[in-house]
Design goal:
Elements (H helix, E strand, L loop, with lengths): L2 E5 L2 H10 L8 E5 L9 E2 L7 H10 L4 E4 L2 H5 L2 H7 L4 E2 L7 H4 L1 H11 L6 E4 L2 H11 L3 E5 L8 E4 L2 H12 L10 E5 L4 E10 L3 E9 L2 E3 L3 E4 L4 E4 L6 H21 L5 E11 L2 E8 L6 H8 L4 H10 L13 E9 L15 H6 L3 E4 L2 E4 L2 E4 L3 E9 L2 H12 L7 E2 L6 H7 L3
Bound molecules: adenosine monophosphate (AMP) and glycine (GLY).
The site of glycine has 7 residues, from loops.
Amino acid sequence: MNVLLIGSGGREHALAWKIAQSPLLGTLYAAPGNPGIAKHAVLSALDPFDHSAVVAFCKDKAIDLVVVGPEAPLVAGVADALNDAGISVFGPSAAAAQLEGSKGFTKDLCARENIPTGAYQRFNNAPKAKAYARAQGAPIVIKADGLAAGKGVTVAMTLDEALSAIDDCFEGAFGEAGAEVVVEEFLGGEEASFFCLCDGTTALPFGTAQDHKRVGDGDTGPNTGGMGAYSPAPVMTPELIARTMEEIIEPTMRGMAAMGAPFTGVLYAGLMIDETGPRLIEYNARFGDPECQVLMMRLKDDVLTLLKAAAEGGLADLSASWSDDAALTVVMAAEGYPGTPKKGTPISGLDAAEATGAKVFHAGTALQGDQLVAQGGRVLNVTALGPDVTTAQARAYAAIDAIDWPGGFCRRDIGWRAVEREGKN
Ligand code: AMP
Ligand code: GLY
């Protein structure tokens, strides 16, 4: 099977690493890829937003399956173009990717299907949004409707914060994404990420994880794309997984099919868990980054069999099995992130880091001659397995300590919640 992987982050390096282990694989291509992905794939400069070029590439290289990592090409319809050309693709249509592309779309689906989530209203102007926020009171959550690179959500602890977040959206801080705003009830509890592979009809549970969104230790500072993750998420007991499937995922699958937009690919539910059970915070139409890295470390099955079944139907006959080990990944980012990261700083010591038994996935790296350098905000994902999160955490940080990159930083407390639960320190 020849495979084209679209994307260039740590998520895609983890997918490439796992796909490369498949006995079904012929040649793996990646567009655009990164220096880590280059160890497993032939890189191409193909533009994923140029749909006719993507289709022509697939025909030329006899691609049997396209795996799309990030959301933007999905929302732009790359899966539709491939499906129209008769090429299998792991990832939803543009219509189904609205689950991630429009928060208002998802909230309306929740309302129709009776899916537990925060109370909300949608607004297209500031005065009405502000009047609703005032009537509800703080804490309250303000969300730009569209894709805003993870920055469009303000959890406002005061009314003033809420009002200024509403102004930011309508004054263009998030471009078109902020032209509509969702004002939503604040939900308390513990967050968890839950993943399902979907083939339009069947949703197959595909692991749990917990992310660390804030840039600083102790969950402080601004939000990021994610500074580290571990899997499984202990809060997601088998009972809670069963309830999430029944109350949230299955009604979503039915609702999407009823709209003529059956969901295929990976459905990533951001959940808030409290004593009443799971509530949906948001959907993503792709794997989490860095959550994918810890899932791929723990997955025991052949990933291509599963991705192909999601693309073509047939998940009902499959299951996914996982290592009993916990996996933990720490993101190393370039100084300045999540603001403007410093580019071009040299990185070495990755072989020494992997000699400890950890796996280093590349995200924003580049080669300048033979020298590996930082190229983006999130740069490396140092990932380790262990019999528990405490051990996986110690192993990941031992590997990080072998990396020589003065221009980088990481949180030192990834996994703290699970480590505290395990009580081994
Ligand atoms: P999102 O960009 O939708 O992932 O939201 C970013 C973060 O905001 C989430 O991971 C939550 O921590 C928080 N958040 C979003 N919606 C709510 C809510 N209704 N109540 C509390 N926190 C929320
Ligand atoms: N790590 C959060 C995300 O991928 O959305």
